[in-house]
Automatic annotation (TrEMBL), chain A:
UniProt source species: Streptomyces tsukubensis (strain DSM 42081 / NBRC 108919 / NRRL 18488 / 9993)
UniProt GO molecular function: ATP binding; hydrolase activity
Family annotation (InterPro entries): CT_C_D, Cyclophilin-like_dom_sf, PxpB
Carboxyltransferase domain location: 1-192
Alphabetical list of Pfam families matching this protein: CT_C_D
Name recorded for this polypeptide: Allophanate hydrolase subunit 1
TrEMBL record, chain B:
Identification of the protein by name: Allophanate hydrolase
Coiled-coil regions listed: none
GO molecular-function term, one example from the UniProt record: ATP binding
Family annotation (Pfam families): CT_A_B
SUPFAM superfamilies in the cross-refs: Cyclophilin-like
InterPro entries per the UniProt record, alphabetical: CT_A_B, Cyclophilin-like_dom_sf, PxpC
Keyword annotations of the record: ATP-binding, Hydrolase, Nucleotide-binding
Top-level taxonomic group: Bacteria
Length: 205, 288
């Protein structure tokens, strides 16, 4: 673990990899729930870091962090979020070719994985989900689409994501869901928040 | 139908509704947003007797004009400009009574960029995630007002303050001095990165917006070529995109980013950054 100061009110905690970042993030949330974390405005997990922003005395917190021990992320107590998907995205043939499998097999391979929301970004409620085995990582599209519909399920690098609303995007689209990923009028607004466990369930043809 | 409404007569180049934003949700990809010059927004609110966090109008350079359906007390502050009610000059930086049906015209900023107008009772558009701010990056909050947009007003809370306390400032400095702390990724630019940042010669670029204050001038060259995995971004972060021109993140900044942050600007300097017109010299200086 490496703790980097960010201005005079924040710390960027850099972990070895995404797994360890997830475990550290879970530990931060656990300690906050137990009242054992000084007040912070933002806790922002990312690919291999966790940002703690709005800290009154970051130097002191940095010193405390050095003494933390924590285990693997472990499953959060709440139920797994199930996301029904029709695997009929326009990039399905491309992804099948990259994986070296028949198009029909993409759904089975993808939905067999157990996912975790590593972090959110890009747009409100857009989760970067990890869990797909490394060998299925795919590059982004060379030319991003100017408009991707809400509910589109895409792949990029090691991540899986669902577009919460229509936006431009460069991910390889393999399916779509009817679920509402993001609704500012709902509590919580984001269906998928960092740390949540997710399973994709193939729907009929 | 209530007449507690102001109708936008001239929306101007960019006028948005802003309060103090929606911090605390960056982990969901929700930017903080809020008034770029928060001290000015707080001040005009005090002048009309509002809570400091009431929603106000934030204009950009060109001002705007509105017509309240019923008489309302208004205060205009931030970037100095001419203020008129039905063509008659009225005070800037003081509470002004605007009669029902009269046009309040907020003129072009004489100095600075962003002018704030508070209405007694505050602008009462529906809050989104606890804030009435329009976030231009994520699209959260009320739509950007256009000519003809009707904005509801809340019920005035109490008697307007006479003075509003100390005026934050009357305009931007001739040179924008930004105190910075190095990191977290200054090592991506070698020892020369900070030296170039602190060497002077930067200016505010015209492409600046609510997301970031862009700069033109000396270019920072990376000494590391690999991708930086996305990481959390703070207000005031000085992010360096591939063109090497530092961008200072303002209220609508993205919550995560993949370009290295060479330094972080002291947030107390950001209201002045939000008021610096394109071409203003920028001097980054080391904090402490």
């Amino acid at each position: 673990m490496r703790v980097l100061p960010v201005g005079d009110r924040a710390l960027l905690v850099e972990l070895a990899d995404g797994e360890e970042a997830g475990a550290f993030h879970a530990e931060v949330l656990r300690r906050r729930a137990a009242g054992a974390l000084p007040p912070v405005t933002e806790i922002v997990p990312a690919a291999r870091t966790v940002l703690l922003d709005g800290v009154a005395d970051p130097g002191r917190l940095a010193a405390e962090l050095a003494g933390w021990t924590f285990g693997p992320a472990g499953a959060r107590a709440e139920a797994v979020v199930e996301v029904p998907v029709r695997y009929d995205g326009p990039d399905l043939p491309r992804v099948a070719a990259l994986w070296g499998v028949a198009e029909e097999e993409v759904a089975a391979i993808h939905s067999a994985a157990g996912f975790r929301v590593a972090f959110c970004g890009f747009a409100p409620g857009f989760g970067y989900l990890t869990g797909l085995p490394e060998r299925y990582a795919v590059p982004r599209r060379a030319t991003p689409r100017t408009s991707v519909p809400a509910g589109a399920l895409g792949l990029a690098g090691p991540y899986t994501g669902v577009y919460p609303r229509s936006s431009p995007g460069g991910w390889q689209l393999i399916g779509r869901t009817e679920l509402t990923l993001w609704d500012p009028g709902r509590d919580p607004a984001a269906l998928l928040s960092p740390g949540a466990r997710v399973r994709f369930v193939p729907e009929g043809p | 139908m209530t007449d507690r409404v102001v109708v936008v007569v001239r929306a101007g180049p960019l006028t948005t509704v802003q309060d103090l934003g929606r911090p605390g949700r960056a982990h969901l990809g929700v930017p903080r947003s809020g008034a770029l010059d928060a001290p000015a927004a707080r001040w005009v609110n005090r002048l009309v007797g509002n809570a400091e966090g009431a929603a106000v109008l934030e204009t950009t350079v060109g001002g705007c004009a509105v017509r309240p359906r019923r008489a309302v007390t208004v205060a205009v502050g931030g970037a100095p400009c001419a203020v008129r009610v039905d063509g008659r000059p009225v005070a800037w930086g003081a509470p002004v009574r605007v009669p029902a049906g009269a046009v309040l015209d907020i003129g072009r900023a004489v100095r600075g960029v962003r002018t704030y107008a508070a209405f007694a009772g505050g602008i009462a558009v529906e809050p989104v995630l606890g804030s009435r701010s329009t976030d231009l990056l994520s699209g959260l909050g009320p739509p950007v007002p256009a000519d003809g947009t009707e904005l509801p007003l809340g019920v005035p809370a109490g008697p307007p303050s006479v003075t509003g306390g100390v005026m934050p400032w009357a305009g931007p400095p001739a040179e924008l001095v930004l105190r910075v702390r190095p990191g977290p990724r200054d090592d991506w630019f070698g020892p020369d990165g900070l030296r170039v940042l602190l060497s002077g010669g930067h200016r505010v670029a015209a492409a600046s917006n609510r997301i970031g204050m862009r700069t033109e001038g000396p270019v920072l060259r990376r000494t590391r070529s690999e991708e930086l995995p996305s990481e959390g971004m703070v207000l005031g972060a000085v992010q360096v995109p591939p063109d090497g021109r530092p961008v200072v993140f303002l209220a609508d900044h993205p919550t995560t980013g993949g370009y290295p942050v060479v330094a972080v600007v002291d947030v107390r300097a950001l209201p002045a950054a939000a008021q610096a017109v394109p071409g203003t010299p920028v001097r980054f200086v080391m904090a402490r």
